[in-house]
Amino acid sequence: MATDLVRALISRLKGRRRHGGFGASTDRSSPSSGRNRIDPELLADDSLDVGARKAVTDRLTLDRRLAENLRILALAAGPSPDITVRHIVTDASLYAAVIHLQGIVDEERVEGVVRTLSSAGATRAQDLINQLGASLLRSSHVATVASFTQLWGALSDGLAVILADGHNQGLACSAQSFKTRPIEEPPTDTTLRGPRQGFIEDLTTNLAMLRQWIRTPNLWIEETNLGHLTHTRLVIAYIKGLASEELLAEVRQRIQRIETDSVLGTGPVEDFIQDTHLSFFPLILRTERPDRVVGNLLEGRVAIMVQNSPFALVAPTDYGMLFQSADDYYEPVPIVFVISVMRVVAFWASILLPGAFVAILTFHHELLPTSLLLRIVGDRAGVPFPVIVEVFLMELTFELLREAGLRLPRAVGSAVTIVGALVLGEAAINAGLVSPSVIIVVATTAIASFILPTFSFDISARLLRFAFIVAGGSIGLFGVQYGIIMVVLILASRRSFGHPYLSPVAPFIRGGWRDYLFRTWHWAKTMRPKLVGGREPIRAPRGQMPRPGASPESEGLQQMKPEGPSDNTRGQ
Amino acid sequence: MRMAKTTEVMSTRQLAGILFMMRTTVVISFVPLITTGSAAQDAWAAGLIAGLLLTLAAWAVAGLAARYPKLTVIDYSRMLLGRFFGTVVSLAISWHFLLIAATDVRIYAELMRVAFMPNTPIWFTTVAMVFLASLAAWFGIEPIGRAAEAFLPFFVAFIALTLLGAAPSVNVQNLQPALARGPGPIFSSVWTPLSIGLQWVSVGMLFPQLTPEDQRVRSAVVAAAVSSAVLAVVAAVLVGVLGTNLSSKSLFPFLKMARSVRPTRTIERIEILGTVAWGLGLFAGGSTMVYCGSRAMAQILRIQESRKVVPAFGALVALYAMYAYEDAFELVGFFRPPGFPLLIALTAGVPYALMWASHVARHLVRRHFGR
């Protein structure tokens, strides 16, 4: 019979939305209290699967009897040792309990709650809860809970919940004390002159960081919960009035479409919401740096952040953003320009160099200057493999070393990589298995790939490199060119949240180049990118280019003049 | 009548870039081989005159399209010429797209065989390039336009670098005496490069998708003028470097020129630049032609989704490219006057003239009789 009831419940639940969407998920004030109450004893049935258990717990409302509520808690959450229940008899002889989860609350604050509750003088349970909520509790946040879902949500958020015998509502009060790691410089995106600040796994802290950077109330943050088992908090952050409403609607719609049991970080979210699942290149920017997120928000983009992940997603993203590093905005522009050019060249070199080398040595010797060709051919004498095999093996070996270096402990990893590269390279040359020119090409390719600031972009280049080696070794430079056209065509066909991935290159947008691949001066950034910031295109007034003042000598002479009042004293 | 249904848009700048790359690619492959035979040292003049006439032809094609801005040439050909003749013209236009795509691909395949990959069979290069063009057409005109826009600076740079690399080797005496043989040989050399301008028929297919609307005709005309200017420069440099005799006998004169120069001791060969540019231009042109051809066929066959036609049209292009020509010499022979210019005049020139006449007649009737 119980199973039939649960099946009926599930079928009813399937008919409605799984989650309430942005803004609705955090509002726990309208439980299913108006509906018929379900027997919590159903939860004692071990044959219930998790979906059925959820269906039941979603329908459970709090009882007037404290013992019954504690029984509901025990049935729903099981013998979990981290659930702490403190039974209290108040000064007015009312029975009550303070419940919290260990490890995520501040024990001293809970003790304070217990003390306040013990000394409360209300004689009726309802009055007790009302008085505590209205005035007695020294807590920044209190909320009424009326259902088991609300009760458990509050406990998971690190709140302490007060239940009183004789009233079917409890009171949740803030007592959070999450243990998080300190704010540190993100290892994936370091900077020399920028702030040493990276996101951490605590969403609240991350949002606070954003608030410190952008202090306008127009920084809006919308929250929802994803994953019907994990209830992971997800927020989208944007600047109201700057981010286009169409973009926001698209982001909201894509997130609300997600129906899954769990969201473990930003990776799954990215999988769900990006424009296509078949993309070698990242269509959404991932970053650990608040300043990068803030910079993008100020251009009209949207950030998506998830509890338990130090990465933020930024949308829409374009190809040029992936070449940008945080340091670009803290170093002099001419230097950054040169470095940016190097990055672009390095990216394409890291993809094309081995393939082009194989193609030229295999099919197009005539393209090399004679002296260079003779040198390379001389070095290759005695190498038993064709060039394509030689390069492929060395690239593969290098990738293995790189992966080994990543997975090993940091202290050992770098040593393994360096020693492995040196020893293997030297040994391979001495053994006559590879030629020095191949080592040079592979090493140059590797160094070029390290220049890229975005790791996910680098992975794409690494994979494509092998495809280009095969193409170059099979059909020469025709294959390399074919591959380039294919890659650019695919890039041109991609969109990130509706925005062309290759813009402002293609489609060419005249005003979009000022802060694209190559950074410009801050005073010259008078306009926002047209596609994302077109709602409020003007960023700053023109004409702020620094102008030299009067020469120091004349300045000094002016100051030394004794006659006449100074500017500061003129009005006195 | 079935209207062209698509939500894709393309900028006029992208169209101009595609037309420029498309024409420059085909033109530099054989010109001045097919013009210097009679124009000799005045091939550049033939290029300029052909450019002038092409600019007028481009205006005629784009101008007619501008009269029916929401329709493709397939739509208004039936409207202007009636159902039967309109369908005949539509089929001819579809065949033009097939012809251009297949010939471009075959030229490139022959170039690869002659220049770089003598052992690679023609069918492999042909099928590979047609696959790429079909894939692009399947993605749609927006990615084609964007990719072409991304390639355009490299295309221009590679052609310019090749010409700059060859410039020190130009022997001005090869271009002299200018216009010594009178205008006759020059005018007789105009028709083939002009007929290659058949590529502008694609404007009639793409016109409804172009934006901004006020620049649509201008972009087509400017592309014709600029690409013709490039043709004249290429012809002058080619003849200047190779001389009239060699440039009229080489199969791929541009490649021959690039190979005959050695700019510096460390940079001995520069033909790869021109070849890469060639490939980029072929991609832009081929994919646009496959896209236009597929859309045209879809409209004629009343197929709602033109993407479904792309594989079939791509297969036709590949077959045509492989079997229509025996070898590169037959390909060159195909372009020689008077056969090729006459063919284009009959299958494109006459239909456009008829459509213009019909349009003017309808306009006059509407003006005088109010209907």
Described by its quaternary structure, the protein is heterodimer
What is the overall silhouette of chain B? globular
Which structural class matches the secondary elements of chain A?
Answer: alpha+beta
Low-confidence stretches of chain A: 12-20, 25-35, 564-572
Write the H/E string of chain B, N to C: EHHHHHHHHHHEHHHHHH
Notes on the structure:
The complex is a heterodimer of chains A (572) and B (371). With 572 residues, chain A is α+β, with helices and mostly antiparallel strands. Chain A is 45% helix and 11% strand. Chain A contains 18 helices and twelve strands. In chain A, strand 9 and strand 10 (312-315) form a beta hairpin. Chain B is mainly alpha-helical and 371 residues long. Helices cover 75% and strands 1% of the residues of chain B. Chain B has 16 helices and two strands. Chain B has helices at residues 12-30, 36-39, 43-67, 73-81, 83-115, 122-139, 141-166, 183-188, 191-196, 201-206, 216-249, 253-260, 271-300, 310-323, 328-335, 339-369; strands at 10-11, 210-211. Chain B has a two-stranded parallel ribbon. The longest helix of chain B is centred in the middle third of the chain and has 34 residues, at 216-249. Chain B is globular and about 70 Å long. Chain A binds chain B through residues 363-364, 366-367, 369-370, 475-478, 481-482, 485-486, 488-489, 492-493, 500, 502, 505-508, and chain B through 11, 13-14, 112, 116-117, 120, 124-125, 128-129, 132, 135-136, 139-140, 142-151, 265-269, 272, 275-276, 279-280, 283.
Brief write-up:
Chain A has helices spanning 2-14, 50-58, 66-77, 107-118, 125-136, 148-156, 203-213, 245-256, 266-273, 290-297, 333-362, 370-380, 387-407, 410-430, 436-451, 455-493, 530-533, 552-560; strands at 83-89, 95-101, 142-145, 159-164, 170-174, 219-226, 232-239, 285-287, 302-306, 312-315, 495-496, 499-500.
